[in-house]
Write a structure and sequence with these properties.
With 349 residues, the chain is of the alpha+beta class. It folds into two domains: 8-130, 2-Layer Sandwich (D-amino Acid Aminotransferase, Chain A, domain 1); 139-298, D-amino Acid Aminotransferase, subunit A, domain 2 (D-amino Acid Aminotransferase, Chain A, domain 2). The protein is built from seven helices and 17 strands. Strands 8, 9, 10, 11, 12, 13, 14, 15 and 16 form a nine-stranded mixed beta sheet that branches. Helix 2 (56-69) crosses helix 3. The protein is globular, with a radius of gyration of 20 Å. Bound molecules: 4'-deoxy-4'-aminopyridoxal-5'-phosphate.
Length: 349
Amino acid sequence: MAIDPSLVCYFRGEYMPLGAAKVGILTHALSYGTGCFEGIRAYYNPDEEQVFLFRVDEHYDRFRQSARILLMQTELSTAELSAITAECIRRSDLHTDVYIRPSVFKSSEIIGVKLHDLEEELYVTVQPFGTYVDIDRALKVQVSSWRRLDDNMVPARAKITGSYINSAFAKSEALLNGFDEAIMLTAEGYVSEASAANLFMLRKGVVSTPPVSENILEGITRETMITLIQDELNVPVIERTIDRTELYAADELFICGTGVQMAAIGSVDHRAVGDGKVGPLVERLQQLYFDVVRGKVPKYRHWCTPVYIGANPGESMDYQANHSNGANGYTNGHADAELPARAEPSLAG
Ligand code: PMP
């Protein structure tokens, strides 16, 4: 479904309608994948009529880390990026679940493969968003014939646009073969992660997940799950290498990530996991997770940043950028773009 072009995004230091944010065809990142991005969610809490950004600081810290790995100067702080994001949601007048896609990319329109001495541009987009994969049933997955890229080839801990070709090969192979999702192994043959989600396995009362040295994206949902499983479900979690055939022997398996949220795996390579249905651990964790992200669990409320605050929500957290135009060209003060009236979001959360 086409995205509403009148949603408000942030691009070249200004708030503007999504439909007005364009780049040239020779943009370096388009040719060579030299950009990085984030996927962040905000959740609507109907009781409080509030939209909460979930772990937004952790996402923007990782965003800035990805940019550093790509030899970029991220001039905006995590707090400034969070404030811009909240402002986009407010200006888009979204009162629903939201997906946020920020990116910083090499914007020079030149031919030549490199990372240094290139201009950069930043955008932040927001859009109403529901579920990305079906989370109410257990997924059919296959171990991909594509191996996960290695840290010394393209670092998976940075969320680099070009590296998603690796995920796309695996995901399309799985879908075209009639599966829902792919699990990728490292070059050494250990379990790494799904196409855009981290993996957890329950075996003999212990939950395991591959360590960060197995070419995974260091998922923020992964961290959230580790905390919730240990502290709320009182089940031990260990980070260790996982063999392919342990997946066949697992009691429960699930994948998690900002887009996917969390989804049980019902079979791997045609072998049922447990009884093939959503297991009790995943069921309990799913309930807890969705309460946490909507700000309903006081202990984890600090992970949830409200978008609409105070009597005049439009004014709070407003990012008044007063930076001079930085070397990368995206830190100039924002102009109040003329924004057309927008239709109601078509995708309810
Ligand atoms: N691995 C990959 C390759 C991903 O793209 C994602 C989604 N960002 C994840 C894991 C999960 O990360 P997070 O929980 O931070 O969204």
